[in-house]
Design a protein that fits this description.
- By secondary structure, the protein is of the alpha/beta class.
- The chain has one domain: Carbonic anhydrase (Beta-carbonic Anhydrase, Chain A), CATH 3.40.1050.10.
- The protein contains five helices and five strands.
- It has a five-stranded mixed beta sheet.
């Protein structure tokens, strides 16, 4: 790897840092919101719900699924970071929602020759069922039950910018 491979991004960061005025936050979710959403670059989590830097915790996973690590983030957010509302937000035209784990593993194997068939990717072509499962997982998890935390399941349309509550 060459040091200039990231020069454009570091240059952009230098300009960003020159105008940066948002220092001093304590890491607490000021609006009490945590969002689990996809890693898709068409999604701007804070902007799509009218929040700003420091207002919410954002966890990004392939497909916006509540993975093991996302679950840990939700638990820590609720118990340590002022989170009292969790939004689970998959989206339209999601590559991870285009098939099951085998389908995606086959695509990776076709592209690279690597066999990732033993990995749990969490993909499902039935995004609605996946969303329902993830919301229920959070609502019934022993470290969430009895807490004053609301869990909602939403769907984001990447073509219209609309967020719709499903659960």
């Amino acid at each position: 790897m060459h040091h200039d491979d990231f020069a454009d991004l570091l240059g952009s960061n230098a300009r960003y840092a020159e105008a940066f005025t948002d220092s001093g936050f304590d890491g607490i979710a000021k609006a009490g919101v945590l969002m689990v959403t996809c890693m898709d670059s068409r999604i701007t989590p804070l902007q799509m719900i009218g929040l700003r830097l420091g207002d919410a915790k954002i966890l990004r996973t392939p497909g916006g699924r509540v993975t093991h690590d996302a679950l840990i983030g939700c638990i820590l957010g609720v118990h340590l970071l002022n989170v009292d509302r969790i939004m689970v937000v998959p989206h339209s035209r999601c590559a991870v929602g285009s098939g099951d784990d085998k389908f995606l593993a086959d695509k990776v194997r076709d592209a690279t020759g690597a066999d990732i068939s033993g990995m749990v990717l969490g993909s499902t072509p039935d995004q609605e069922a996946g969303l329902r499962f993830d919301v229920e997982l959070l609502r019934t998890h022993p470290l969430m039950v009895g807490r004053d935390v609301l869990v909602g399941g939403f769907h984001y349309d990447v073509d219209s910018g609309r967020l719709t509550q499903r659960y």
